[in-house]
Amino acid sequence: MRRTLHRGLLAAVLLASLAAAGGPAAAQTPPGPAEAAGYGGLHAAAWQGDAARIARLLAAGAEPNPRDGNGRTPLHVAAFARQRDAIRALAKGGAGLGALDHDRYDALTIAAVADDEATLALLLQLGASARLVTSRYDGSALIAAAHLGHDGVVRQLIAAGAPLDHVNNLHWTALIEAIVLGDGGPRHVATLEALLDAGADTQLADRQGRTPLVLARSRGYEPMVRLLLQAGAAP
């Protein structure tokens, strides 16, 4: 009994700290102003969106995947800066679309967290995978987007084959994160609906054995409760 209570208390503390910090997706570290000002070469060109300079540097033999102090490649930097012409030029020159920075984020997950549907669509078109395990939470772009209620991003990732029922190291799926880290508002409801329409498993539970339906009910998220019941979640 004491051990069970201890685990429950730890889970509550973890959930509160994640919510206060913005959740797992907040672990992303974009370049700060001083860091960006100190960039040179491909990193500077990527940040500034200078596709012509990127092409010249790569044609002259520049390595396409150099790393900055946080392990970001120029592609990561271009994704943070929403520089889509730079992304095209880097991809054409051999940049690794699945490269992970020190926080274990790829460009696709960066775009997903930013709710940047245009950059996400471009990266998918160029061949980036929606199936990568990313972040220190062993999550995915889909889980990060679901947590934030980025419903359009979620639909794109589902269409690109993102694993619906991946379980991260917090023992949460995208469906669970849309509930426990969401606000129950329209975009999180739309996110939940997209996941359910795609066939996400409604019975996968968290570490305490709580299903998405139990979690939605405990938070008073009635629109989510209705959607889960309509999808066949066990009452």
SSE layout and pairing:
Layout: H1 2-21, H2 33-37, H3 41-48, H4 51-59, H5 74-80, H6 84-92, H7 107-113, H8 117-126, H9 141-148, H10 151-159, H11 174-180, H12 186-198, H13 212-219, H14 222-230
Helix pairs in contact: 3-4, 3-5, 4-6, 5-6, 5-7, 6-8, 7-8, 7-9, 9-10, 9-11, 10-12, 11-12, 11-13, 12-14, 13-14
Query: Gap between N and C termini, in Å?
Result: 26 Å
pLDDT under 50 segments (min length 5)? 1-22
The helix-strand sequence is: HHHHHHHHHHHHHH
| CATH-derived architecture of the largest domain | Alpha Horseshoe
| Gross morphology | elongated
The radius of gyration computed from the alpha-carbon positions, rounded to a whole number of angstroms, is: 19 Å
Instruction: Examine the coordinates and then state which fold CATH places here, giving the name of the CATH topology of the largest domain.
Output: Serine Threonine Protein Phosphatase 5, Tetratricopeptide repeat
Compute the average pLDDT: 91
Number of individual domains:
2
**What count of helical segments does DSSP give?**
14
CATH class categorisation of the largest domain: Mainly Alpha
**What is the strand content?**
under 5%
Helix content: 40-55%
Give me the secondary-structure category.
Answer: mainly alpha
Specify the CATH homologous superfamily of the largest domain. Answer: Ankyrin repeat-containing domain
Instruction: Characterize the biggest β-sheet.
Output: none
Strand tally, please?
0
